[in-house]
Structures are given as structure tokens and as C-alpha cells.
Design a protein that fits this description.
This protein is an alpha+beta fold. It is built from 12 helices and 19 strands. Strands 9, 12, 15, 16, 17, 18 and 19 form a 7-stranded mixed β-sheet that branches. The chain has a 4-stranded antiparallel β-sheet with strand order 1-8-6-3. A 4-stranded antiparallel β-sheet has the order 5-4-2-7, with no helix packed on it.
Length: 438
């Protein structure tokens, strides 16, 4: 009996997505709830699970196609039939997999599962399937570091490889034999890229282009940011902050902090707490505009901009004003891990009353961030560098950071924006204020 596989609900206000990748091919066995495809929506990537155990018989859409919620994208044969859409005879490995999925453990074992002559075929096909289910970011890392993905244990969901897994495997390959194999692989790639004719050289005037369709996530980012520019009366105000006190506090307590809480003490927690303190004095920065009404929030849900393989995402740290330093750091670290793995949910990125974006981790000295509607403001952090400043009549070197606050002038007056940024500056330069609520 064939069972339809439908596109699941993708979250509030999301009615369709793009089929990014098939994780199972026609003729392959699947277990109940095992992912068979990956969908890309406006906000996140979502895996489509198989509703039953059986064998994939049909793929009704192609990679890159747009599919609506509830649409049938594939069919699963619960009887274990390995008939494919092309009508090709299944391989011994596929037959073995189908039997394993549909028969109880120990019943009807195939020779391939017992290790006879067909076992190497099954192993080879399993390795090939392992490679084809890698995400684009992991594939690029595999090619860059010249590692065999089938020899790496994945730490992602369902044992899948992440980019960090590939990098760690490459770094651990330090023995002479491994180094020689990598050098040989690089030499082989270089040799293959050379022209076949002796003495031939690429034309100096040769110019190449590559066209890549924008992902749904990238299209959504582009639309939202442009809408923000077109709708909001956006303005940016700047200040700089001396990071000496925060750096000293972090250096003094980082080991004790990590030992007690199991997480490193970073700079972001200081800025989240500083923004929560400043928002009490300037509530309009934590407000939003809905029609002709201004909505003020008595809580601070901070959207933290995180770079993911497929683009910028902004998971939300909810009730950040009530969280401890450790809770903030743990939440942000968990979101960062999920962003790399592409496992953030729609709920985790919905809402948010204020945004913090740290371009400094990429080396940015100064920028004018764009607000994230319907929020009214975003704080931009930048890199820390020593600059000469005047302290007590003396020119001294201090670790300084530029801060930028972009805000919607329809809601926030210039005086309020400047006051908010000054409050953040005061709290960072004197972190004791964060403890005594000043």
C-alpha cells in the first residue's frame, strides 16, 4: 500500500517552501519519522519525515520546486516494494535495505546483511548516500579540507555531519601518512585543473560568470530589509565605548564563571544587560509601531543576529531583562550551534522587540545596521581596537569600540536615541551599574 508524504505545517503565516534537497532516493528504505527531504522556508530549513516505514517509490517534485503546505511530494510503499519511477531494477543493496525496513529483526535476513559478496556493494552505496545528504556548507568544507566524509562521525541531528566536524577531522589528520595523502589529493586536484595540452595556459582575458538562484531565505532577507528602508524613517546615531572595565572583569572571572556555569563569559551578555537597563529609561527603543498605535513592551526579547551557512538569522532571547549572565550566554551559544546545523525553528526566530548585531566578530569598524520590522531600533557592535584617548589630561591607549544605534524616527526622537546609547555606554564602562540598577 502506498502512503502519500505531504508537506507539513511550516509555522504561522508560512504557506509554502522550496524543496532544497532529497535525502532519500526512489527505491531506498526509510523508517517511520525518518527525514526524506529538506524544505527551505522564508525563515528556516525544515525536514519532511516519512509517516510510515517502507520504501520510497516516487518523488513527485524536483529539487528547487516550490511546494505548498499539504502538497504531496512523495509516496512510500509500506509493503517494501522497491519499484522506482524509472522502472529500474533495484540493486542488491536496496533490496537488503528494503528487507531491513519491512521485516522484524532477525526475520528474513538477506545475504548482504550477513557479509557475503554483495556486502561491499551495500557499503559503497551507503558511503555514496552519505555524501549526497551533506549540506552545501559541509560539502564545501569537505572539498576544501580534502577529507573523506564517510570516515567522520557526525555530531549534528541524526548523526549528520556539520562543518565543525569536517574542520575537526582535518585538524586531527596530523600523522605523516595522513599529511601525505592530503598532499597527494591536493596535487591530483591541481593536476586535473591544468590544461591537457603541454604548455597550454589560460587566456589572460578569460572571464567567467556563475549564476546561482537566490535561496528563499536570502530573498526574504532582501525583501524585509528593503521594506524597512522604504517604510521606516531610519536614522543612525553613534558613540564609542571604552571596553577596559568589561575586559578586566571578564579576564578576572572567566575561569570561575566557566567552571560554575559550564559556559564561557562573553561580551554579548554585558551588552544585553546594558540594553535592558537602558530600555527602562527609554522605553520607546523597545517599542513597535502597529498602524497608528505605539506598542510598549514591559519585557525585552532580544533578537541576536547570527551568521548561518544560508544567511543571517535572528533567533530571539526571550525575557532577556530577567535572565542572568549565564542564562544569556547559554541561550546564545545554543542558538549559534543550531544556526550552524540549520535546525532553528520558526518559533525561535519569531517575535523580538529589539535587535543586537555584532559585526565586530567579522572585523567591522563601523556600520549603520538596518532595523528589523516591526522593531524600532537595532544596536550595532563593532570590533575592539586600541585607540588614543584623553584620560585625566593624559593621552593613553584604550580598547575602544564604536556603537551604532539605528532607529525609527517615527517613534523615537533623537534625544531618546542618544540617551539610550549613552546609558549603554555608561553601563559598559562601569559594569557595577548593571548590578545596582543605575
Amino acid at each position: 500500500m502506498a502512503t502519500d508524504v505531504q508537506v507539513p505545517a511550516l509555522g504561522e503565516s508560512i504557506t509554502e517552501g522550496t524543496l532544497a534537497q532529497w535525502l532519500k532516493k526512489p527505491g531506498e528504505a526509510v523508517a517511520a519519522d525518518e527525514p526524506i527531504a529538506s524544505l527551505e522556508t522564508d525563515k528556516v530549513s525544515v525536514e519532511v519525515p516519512s509517516p510510515v516505514a517502507g520504501v520510497v517509490t516516487e518523488q513527485l517534485v524536483k529539487e528547487g520546486d516550490t511546494v505548498a503546505v499539504g502538497a504531496v511530494i512523495a509516496r512510500i510503499d509500506e509493503s517494501g516494494s522497491t519499484t522506482t519511477t524509472a522502472g529500474a531494477a533495484p540493486s542488491p543493496a536496496v533490496q537488503a535495505a528494503a528487507t531491513a525496513a519491512t521485516n522484524p529483526a532477525g526475520a528474513g535476513e538477506t545475504p548482504a546483511l550477513k557479509g557475503d559478496a554483495t556486502a561491499p556493494v551495500a557499503e559503497a552505496e551507503a558511503d555514496e548516500d552519505h555524501v549526497t545528504t551533506l549540506s552545501p556548507a559541509v560539502r564545501r568544507a569537505v572539498l576544501e579540507y580534502h577529507v573523506d566524509p564517510t570516515k567522520i562521525r557526525g555530531s549534528g541531528k541524526d548523526g549528520r555531519l556539520t562543518k565543525d566536524d569536517v574542520i575537526a577531522a582535518a585538524q586531527s589528520a596530523s600523522s605523516p601518512a595522513q599529511a601525505g595523502a592530503q598532499a597527494e589529493a591536493k596535487a591530483s586536484v591541481a593536476a586535473e585543473s591544468q590544461p591537457s595540452a603541454p604548455g597550454a595556459r589560460p587566456s589572460p582575458g578569460e572571464r567567467k560568470e556563475e549564476r546561482v538562484k537566490m535561496s528563499r531565505l536570502r530573498q526574504t532577507i532582501a525583501k524585509r530589509l528593503k521594506d524597512a528602508q522604504n517604510t521606516a524613517a531610519m536614522l543612525t546615531t553613534f558613540n564609542d565605548v571604552d571596553m577596559t572595565a568589561v575586559i578586566d572583569a571578564r579576564t578576572r572571572y572567566k575561569d570561575l564563571f566557566e567552571k560554575k556555569h559550564g559556559i564561557r563569559l562573553g561580551f554579548m551578555a554585558f551588552f544585553v544587560k546594558a540594553c535592558a537597563l537602558a530600555a527602562k529609561d527609554v522605553p520607546s527603543v523597545n517599542a513597535s509601531l502597529e498602524g497608528d498605535e505605539i506598542v510598549y513592551h514591559d519585557y525585552l526579547d532580544v533578537s541576536v543576529a547570527v551568521s548561518a551557512p544560508k544567511g543571517l538569522v535572528v533567533p530571539v532571547v526571550r525575557n532577556a531583562d530577567r535572565m542572568s549572565f549565564a542564562e544569556i550566554e547559554k541561550t546564545i551559544a545554543a542558538y549559534g550551534k543550531k544556526a550552524k546545523e540549520g535546525t532553528l525553528t520558526v518559533d525561535e526566530m519569531s517575535g523580538g522587540t529589539f535587535t543586537i548585531s555584532n559585526g565586530g566578530v567579522f572585523g567591522s569598524l563601523l556600520s549603520t545596521p538596518i532595523i528589523n520590522p516591526p522593531q524600532s531600533a537595532v544596536l550595532g557592535m563593532h570590533r575592539i581596537e586600541e585607540r588614543p584617548v584623553v584620560k585625566d589630561g593624559q593621552i593613553v591607549a584604550r580598547p575602544m569600540m564604536y556603537l551604532a544605534l539605528s532607529y525609527d524616527h517615527r517613534i523615537i526622537d533623537g534625544r531618546e536615541a542618544v540617551t539610550f546609547l549613552v546609558r549603554v555606554k555608561e553601563a559598559i564602562e562601569d559594569p557595577t551599574r548593571l548590578l545596582i540598577d543605575l
